[in-house]
Amino acid sequence: MPESTTAPRTPADPAASGDRAGGVPIRLIEVTKRFGASAETAVDNLTMTIPAGEIVVLLGPSGCGKTTTMRMINRLIEPTTGRIMIGDSDAKAQRPDELRRHIGYVIQQAGLFPHMTVAQNIAQVPMMLGWAKQRITERVDELLNLVGLDPAEYRTRYPRQLSGGQQQRVGVARALAADPQVLLMDEPFGALDPITRENLQDELLRLQRELSKTIVFVTHDVDEALKLGDRIAILDTGSTIVQYAPAEEILTNPANAYVEQFVGGESSMRLLKLTPVASITPENVVRARLEDSISDVRHRLTESAADRAIVLDELDRPLRWTGPAELATASGTIADLISADDDRLSTVVPADATLREAMEALLNCPEDIVPIVDGSRAYTGAVTLAAVQHHVSDLYERQKELRRQRLAAGKSPVSLAAEPEDEEEQAAPEEAVGAGEVA
Ligand SMILES: Nc1ncnc2c1ncn2[C@@H]1O[C@H](COP(=O)(O)OP(=O)(O)OP(=O)(O)O)[C@@H](O)[C@H]1O
User: Fold this and answer.
1) Which element (helix H / strand E) includes 312?
2) What are the start and end residues of every segment in region (Disordered) (predicted)?
3) How far is the CA of 52 from the centre of ligand 1 (A)?
């Protein structure tokens, strides 16, 4: 039976992001970075908005400028020209070290200080901010709990006494120490094995549901990008945005062959991985109990034009399917046909599963329908192969329609900016800010 540990992400709903309060928007306005006297631009006139409280993933080939873009936000690298706004403030308005105390930064292999304990590592920024000792101690323990490490066991350990995944958790705790509104994560899980990586991705999504930070996340891994990103910016050389859209759009309406190449040839399967089984239209199924009379179930099947009934036990757990053919000549109650001691349906799908997991279950069961169950294994609905197919084709149709509408309005057929209504404004020339120091 497929099991899922975390609820999948629903493809981002731009309207929903307004409800999130945790972070502030970040705007990069005509930002260019040229290193030293190089004629090449590492980042070439990039304009983009990272909406408050969202995870935006920068995805692109090696050397396209992802890290440079990210490091200009916390001024580890100074833009050559252009402006970066964090909330209402120009990043230039603050001293870089001051700015960085309010922007969490997580890098590959955590970057913890080896000679400091876990607690001392996490306490770095609060100490610089002059917090009282007691407050720091409490905050360290709170953060260790938040990232799933027992403070009593881990606070006094040194980084070398931690696994790679645990170091990364401490790295995240350290970045969150002073409760920054913005978190920059540069391939934070890149060096971890696939299982630890998936666990930490799930943890990050859980944390984000609680904290709603504005997160800029750099990765090479398309599955990671699709899973984590409320929006994904697909970048080409010079951080040129080729497409900037939720995963659903990237998969069903790729801007061009370049984006298709990134996503690979399994768009529909990837889409299934992102879509919760709960999001599809429930099958028309009659619920029957052992004590129900067969004539009543037959009547309800006819009334609702359903061709299937699921027989449930006293705790609403599925026993097996029945239908008009089996019930046609029978009389008495369902219990005369089916006993709670009979073999139960062995394949069910948890309600928090993805459509990908539902497909797996459907391909491995004798029926063409599988019950969906909650945490107590009580029946909540059912899914068929046809419904999955229908759902996926609806998603493609919806994107086709959006594309048609955008073209009709004279816009780009794919999303290029976070807030489409801002596209014109963002394209307008902004006053370029003078050259910064070369990092
Ligand atoms: N300090 C530097 N001095 C000179 N050139 C640099 C410097 N840092 C980066 N570059 C160049 O800028 C370009 C963008 O580099 P950047 O590290 O931002 O790319 P990236 O997309 O993050 O790559 P990767 O995925 O490999 O980490 C590259 O051509 C790189 O060689």
Assistant:
1) strand 309-312
2) 1-21, 406-439
3) 27
What is the DSSP annotation of 203-226? HHHHHHHHH--EEEEEES-HHHHH
Half-sphere exposure (Cβ direction) of 123: Cα atoms closer than 13 Å: 19
**Going from the N-terminus, what domains does the chain have, and what CATH number goes with each?**
26-264 (3.40.50.300), 279-387 (3.10.580.10)
In 10 A of CB 367, how many CB atoms?
Answer: 14
Q: Determine how many CB atoms are found less than 10 A away from the CB of residue 197.
A: 20
Q: What is the pLDDT of residues 43-54, one digit of tens each?
A: 999 999 999 999
Please report how many Cα atoms fall inside a 13 Å half-sphere around the Cα of residue 130, on the Cβ side.
1
CA pseudo-torsion sign 234, 27, 175, 179: negative
Give the tens place of pLDDT for each residue, 319-355. 999 999 989 888 889 998 887 777 788 889 999 999 9
**CA 392 to CA 387: how far, in whole Å?**
9
Q: How far is the CA of 235 from the centre of ligand 1 (A)?
A: 13
Query: Which residue has the least CA distance to atom 3 on ligand 1?
Result: 35
- Is 0.95 exceeded by the ipTM? yes
Element (H, E) at 28: strand 26-33
Please list every protein residue whose CB sits less than 6 Å from any atom of ligand 1: 35, 42, 60, 62-68
